[in-house]
Sequence to fold (817 residues):
Amino acid sequence: MAETLDLSQFVERTDAGAAHMTLAVDGVGCAGCIRKIENGLTKLPGVIDARLNFTQRRLAVDWRDNEIGAADIIRALEQIGYQAHPFAPERVEADDSRQAKWLLKCLAVAGFAAMNVMLLSISVWSGSVSDMTAVTRDLFHWLSALIALPAAAYAGQPFFQSAWRALRTRQLNMDVPITVGVTLALALSLYETATHAVHAYFDSALMLLFFLLCGRYLDLAMRRKTKLFAGNLASFKAEFAHRLDANGELTRLPVSALNPGDRVLVRPGELIPADGAVLTGSSAIDESLMTGETTARTVMPGATVYAGSINGSGALTVQVVAAGTGTLVDEVERLLDKAIEAKSRTVRLADRAARLYAPVVHTAAALTCIGWLIAGASLHFAIVTAIAVLIITCPCAIALAIPAVQVVAAGQLFRSGVILNSGDAIERIAETDTIVFDKTGTLTLPEPAVDDAAIDPDLLQQSARLALSSHHPLAAALSRRAAKRVPYPGAVEESGRGVRAVIDGVEARLGSAAFCGLSEEDAQAARDGDASCIAFTYGGRSTVIPIRQSLRPDAIEVMQALSKRGLDLMILSGDRPEAVRPIAERLDVRQWLAALTPAEKIAVIELLKSQGRRVLMVGDGLNDAPALAAAHASLSPISAAHLAQAQADALFLGDRLAPALRAVIVARQARSLMRQNLALAVIYNAIAVPIAVAGLVTPLIAAVAMSGSSILVTLNALRARLGGCRESIMPSKSGDGAVVATGGMAEPLLSPAAQPAFAGHDNAELVS
Amino acid sequence: MNVLIYLVPLALLLGLTGLIGFMWALKSGQYDDLDGAALRILPDDDIAP
Fold:
């Protein structure tokens, strides 16, 4: 059947037949790659320009539309040796990039102005002890004002705007005291300059802005890096669908370009691209990605199928429906909305500090003013001193304290395979005391694997090579074991039954037990609980090959290490109890519940929450998404369903579970550093404020105190980088981990009263 | 102290040049691909073999 590739969704067309497309490129790693890709593409006729952004791993291509097509370019890249995926930049990303540029501009202006004003200020400070005349000092003050006022008006915008937004909604954030402090410092300095006073605070105001902008920029840069990475990954994983047009032609197009009413062809082994109704064909579909249930569901024409399930043995034609009411995804999304609402109530450490900080500082300044007036000082002196209190307490160190640690810790996590979705995830992960795991795809590997314990190696190799000719998902798992990756010639797949081929003149069959001439009893004998089976017969010999979800290679060690750190562990799965029990036993997890619906998973998490626990949810399925959002913090493997990924605070890469442990270690350390930093800021204020209240703050003292505290806090944040390496990830080999793991669980997580409510579902059928 | 009349404007002008230079570099996209720039100088394909 003819098949065309439709990429028009990703191509931007400009006038005169020119086209532009952005591609995320996989596997770029060195200088040679840049040259190979760019030269290889510009050599093609019709390509105007190709430019690879190495930092983003993205390639921008311009070409003349009448000479070459988007699909040709991707094919050409494939021939050079790179997988490229069309990439549609999200609006959020464009907004962030604009915001980052703006912050950088503000930072540059603040830096320029701070340096020049400091140049003038240092002259004044050194002049005040030597021979500078009052006229020269005034000139320098006026020059400082000339630089500082426009620079602050420009560079302060991020803070002024944010403070205004907060005030309009009658709230206080960190930017309110910053704005008040900067504005008052500038106004006071201007007044002092006009009245020929000795002190002006232009330098302090600008330096404050400069350090604060550094913190803001670092914070944004960290979030951008994650989004960039996640964006590329999303495009690598982007699914294509085969649309069946009215004239019977097949068009291959991105899933996001599908419309309700379209008919799509889903071949055996493919992902079902959208929610829909089966028109023709019958098959068994694997919904484990959504429900965690590993047994396949049989579908016939008229049945409803959900996006994300894997089609089994038969080809299906599916009519795409609009996301109406009552679908599984809708149910999940409704739960999500509720959970997100609940979550937004948790307050970040920085905001908690800000809420405490603003009233305290403003009261202190007011008391200073009143105190000096009562003591009989002039109104001018009282006001100047009060403003000096505001300037010196400006939250330089506090505003840097948390972003700096977040950036360093995020970099540290990134190196060990954890990417953060949100900046405050670190705090929340550090606070958790209970970890709830999903089973399928989280504790186990996302792909099933052959359990070859009792199988003749020769038969295994033959069956694996035969499996190469099948589209069935179980066969795909088996075919990975084939040493010789060449399918047998003349292999025939019989839809819904299996494959057969003639090997050395003898017939071999792979597929269902009946297809291979085995009785159902034989198949049952080999099956032990959680495994799916595939039968193979060759000549007179036959075997049943169990294929099961295997644990992540380091799961046992990681679970031991986690419980050794005082965390309570629990498994909540949507899968059958008999599939969950062996896994829980191997991992020595005492608390587990099976056959849970998404709503029940949330209910368990809410219950744990109501017991005062802070839950870290680790899960990957669509059915975990609401639980991920409801939990205090959440973590997903990178193979997770899209919706789950969007909800997780952090994603981890690779086949190992170690990044989950690493996330907890680094987050806990980062949190203690954040607290240290806040403590440093408090100590600084405890020293500086009495000086300010006493009316002794000169501009020199303000400048030294401010930059000193900022630098101290930044250096302390950098310790997150040093300390993280010292602590070993794996527990020692002494084997005492298991003892602690069981001994540490003094009390069951769920109270006896709560248990029956869920126990009833152990044998219940899952979402149908 | 009369030397200040031209030294101070000169200092400011130099600083301003740096600032304008940075803004220009930012606008022309030179900060878009920091890692790539470091690698692009390595291949010496501009030298005839």
User: Anything to note?
Assistant: Residues 1-29 of chain B form one domain.
